[in-house]
Design brief:
It is built from 10 helices and 19 strands. By secondary structure, the protein is of the alpha+beta class. α5 runs antiparallel to α10 (334-374). The longest helix has 41 residues, at 334-374.
């Protein structure tokens, strides 16, 4: 596969760009008709445009140009581009979709100058080396990667819809806690727990290898679930020190009380967890509630608003332990809570399938990209892409 300079296989339209300051943009933003594009995608919408053709915008400064970082986007509509994004169009030698995939896959940092704010100069832009197969092959590669990208987006949307469905099930079964039309008892959070403990007020001594002793911090509490990518691990000695007051068990709830306060997860039975800083643990009283209901309850907007009102942090959000214990929560009949828990477990099973599918697709996309830009892609690899799943339908009796 031959290598070409980006400046030789595209036409540069930087000369047509016009920057606008905030006042100028405000004056043109009455109806907000057209995208106003900067270094990192759409910044605003304004009422005038300077481009009306298919263009590729690549961050000139303030962007991220590392491998697999998004620095290039295609626009095929009326739009306005400021001076923080280079503007390229086709000149008959390269396909813009192919170039977008290559530029977002490649590590372009060697072309970047500047120490505090990176900059991709026009001369550096023109010198970017691009592996360039025939136009027909470029189109085939772009089509394959577009299909993979579309499937990835579908999987992410399916996961998002399941999360939204879970919220709707909670409201359908228990109503809006703020109004409590079902007149369930309103009790203090601590009354539904057999134990509530705060984290040790010390920095955990982590180890550099994965062990059976993860230390869960606020950064690992993401959208109601454990994020394992940033997890830190302890050795057994440190684990025993940090769990001296109470050893977390399956079904316990870890709650963030500082920073991203209000997030919570239910602990699985897979590891021996300990608490990192700025977290606390609720152990549900199984005679009064179950873990999944209480998890959904403490993550509800109703409880989060209580946390907001008690926020005592000026720069970093912070809620005191004593206030958290007194949060008002609903106590519906235990049978109804258990029914909700059964539904959630079914949703979680489906969600796990989507997440596994998403991971497989992302791995496949990475493999296809690497092969494509090395000239090693067998175009029959398109058959590896799994067919799009039908639209998920959610039934009341899921």
């Amino acid at each position: 596969m031959k290598i070409e300079k980006l400046g030789n296989i595209t036409s540069n339209l930087d000369g047509k760009r016009i920057p606008l300051n905030s006042q100028q943009r405000a004056e043109k933003s009455i109806e907000k008709l057209y995208p106003y594009i900067g270094a990192n995608n759409i910044m605003d919408y304004i009422d005038e445009y300077i481009f009306d053709e298919k263009i590729l915008c690549l961050a000139e400064d303030g962007g991220s140009w590392g491998a697999k970082q998004i620095c290039a986007n295609i626009y095929n509509e009326k739009c306005w581009v400021n001076n923080h994004a280079h503007v390229l169009k086709e000149n008959g030698k390269a396909n813009l979709e192919y170039l977008r995939y290559f530029l977002n896959e490649a590590d372009l940092n060697k072309y970047i100058t500047g120490t505090t704010r990176g900059k991709l100069t026009k001369s550096a832009l023109n010198s970017i080396e691009v592996p360039l197969p025939s136009l027909e092959t470029q189109l085939d590669i772009a089509n394959i990667l577009t299909k993979a990208e579309s499937l990835i987006a579908q999987r992410k949307e399916s996961i998002r819809l399941l999360d939204e469905y879970l919220k709707s099930v909670f409201l359908e079964m228990f109503g809006d806690p703020e109004h409590n039309f079902n007149q369930y008892p309103v009790v203090a959070l601590e009354s539904l727990c057999s134990t509530i403990v705060d984290c040790p007020h010390s920095t955990p001594r982590k180890v550099e290898v994965k062990t059976q002793f993860p230390c869960i911090r606020t950064s690992e509490l993401t959208n109601g679930y454990i994020s394992w990518e940033s997890m830190q691990y302890l050795d057994e000695e440190e684990y025993l020190v940090r769990t001296k007051r109470l050893k977390p068990e399956q079904g316990d709830i870890v709650y963030a009380r500082e920073g991203t306060f209000g997030e919570a997860v239910v602990l699985p039975n897979s590891h021996r967890f300990s608490l990192g800083q700025r977290t606390m643990l609720f152990r549900p009283d199984k005679k009064k509630t179950n873990s999944i209901f209480l998890w959904a309850m403490v993550r509800s907007d109703y409880v989060f608003r209580q946390a907001q009102r008690k926020n005592s942090g000026s720069t970093v959000g912070h809620v005191n332990v004593k206030d958290i214990k007194k949060f008002n929560v609903l106590q519906p009949p235990k049978e109804l809570q258990d029914n909700f828990s059964d539904i959630v477990l079914k949703i979680e099973t489906l969600k796990a399938q989507y997440q596994q599918s998403l991971q497989e697709l992302e791995n496949l996309y990475g493999s296809l990209s690497q092969k494509a830009f090395k000239g090693e892609l067998n175009l029959k690899d398109e058959s590896l892409l799994m067919a799009a799943e039908p639209e998920v339908k959610y039934e009341k009796n899921i």
